[in-house]
Design brief:
This protein has 290 residues and is mainly alpha-helical. The protein has 13 helices and 3 strands. It has helices at 10-22, 46-58, 66-82, 95-110, 116-121, 123-126, 132-137, 143-148, 163-183, 186-208, 216-233, 242-258, 265-289, and strands at residues 2-7, 27-32, 35-40. The chain has a 3-stranded antiparallel beta sheet, covered by helices on one side. The longest helix has 25 residues, at 265-289.
Length: 290
């Protein structure tokens, strides 16, 4: 990254950042000792960004910049509370976020809206039979099966244990995955899905064996990534709101204490730790490049 300009107030920094982003120039804002710095993601954009900066300084009330001014004012009023969540997607989401969301729903429907937990608890209702789609996606029972069917190390993230389970996970996947795909890249989201999915699945497998599933380990991984990446990079606009941090960490602890035999706590912890480590390294890399 390369520094473009500094401001003593947040609003003009947000204003210029919005103008640049509307022109396809990606930049981040960093606060340091009360000074707001705009950093360009691509140094090749510097000349065009410098020209736009001069134009905004000369004619800030130009009609071309009015939409940016309105959005900057909204962000100034909401950004301190929302942080990275101010970039949450609206109706349109990226292809990676959409593909995983649809895949989870399809698996849930093909599984007959049933939970693998029900196969053991209510055999009279389920017939004691695991639906074929679950059989094909569940974690391997042996090393031989893992070698023969390697997709099983990641596909348990597509299996869900009931309506509340899938709604909770997909809501957070839509929010956090959408932010990462939009603000970072689809490649980063795919890598996070694989890394945190493997870490969460592996941790849960070691603790409880192959009878598990759910996207929640990945969700906690995305949360950990955004939390640490925003904190370490120093980019105020990328920080995770404290309320969200408190809620998700609190639920992790509460579910482990109250529902130890139902909630896949090891998957949550494995996903969170791996995602946080990824975020720490990403934030450090951004900070050193600034």
């Amino acid at each position: 990254m390369i520094e473009l300009v500094r401001f003593r107030e947040q609003l003009p920094a947000l204003f210029l950042q919005q103008v640049l982003e509307e022109q396809g120039i990606r930049c981040v804002m960093r606060e340091d000792a009360g000074v707001f710095c705009l950093l360009l993601a691509d140094p090749e954009d510097f000349q065009r960004a410098r020209q736009l900066t001069d134009e905004v300084a000369a004619s800030p009330y130009d009609a071309r910049f009015q939409s940016a001014a309105r959005r900057a004012a909204q962000r100034a009023g909401q950004g301190q509370d929302q942080g990275v969540l101010s970039a949450a997607p609206g109706q349109r989401i990226g292809p990676v976020t959409r593909t995983v969301l649809v895949a989870c729903v399809v698996v849930f429907v093909l599984g007959g809206f049933q939970s693998p937990v029900l196969f053991d608890l209510f055999p009279a209702v389920t017939g004691g039979q695991v639906p074929p789609v679950y059989q094909w996606l569940m974690a391997p029972h042996s090393l031989t099966m893992m070698v023969a069917e390697p997709w099983r190390v990641i596909t348990p993230v597509l299996i869900h244990f009931g309506l509340m389970h899938i709604v909770f996970n997909l809501l957070w996947w839509w929010i956090l995955g959408g932010i990462i795909e939009r603000s970072h890249s689809a490649t980063v989201l795919i890598l996070l899905l694989l890394v945190t999915g493997l870490a969460g699945n592996g941790a849960q497998y070691l603790v409880a064996g192959p009878g598990f599933g759910g996207l929640s380990g990945v969700v906690y991984g995305l949360f950990g990534y955004l939390w640490l990446a925003g904190w370490i990079s120093g980019d105020r606009s990328q920080r995770m709101p404290r309320a969200v941090v408190g809620w998700l960490v609190g639920w992790l602890v509460l579910s482990a204490l109250v529902f130890p035999d139902v909630i896949a706590t090891a998957a949550h912890v494995g996903g969170l730790v791996s995602g946080a480590l990824y975020g720490f390294l990403a934030g450090l890399w951004r900070r050193t490049r600034a």
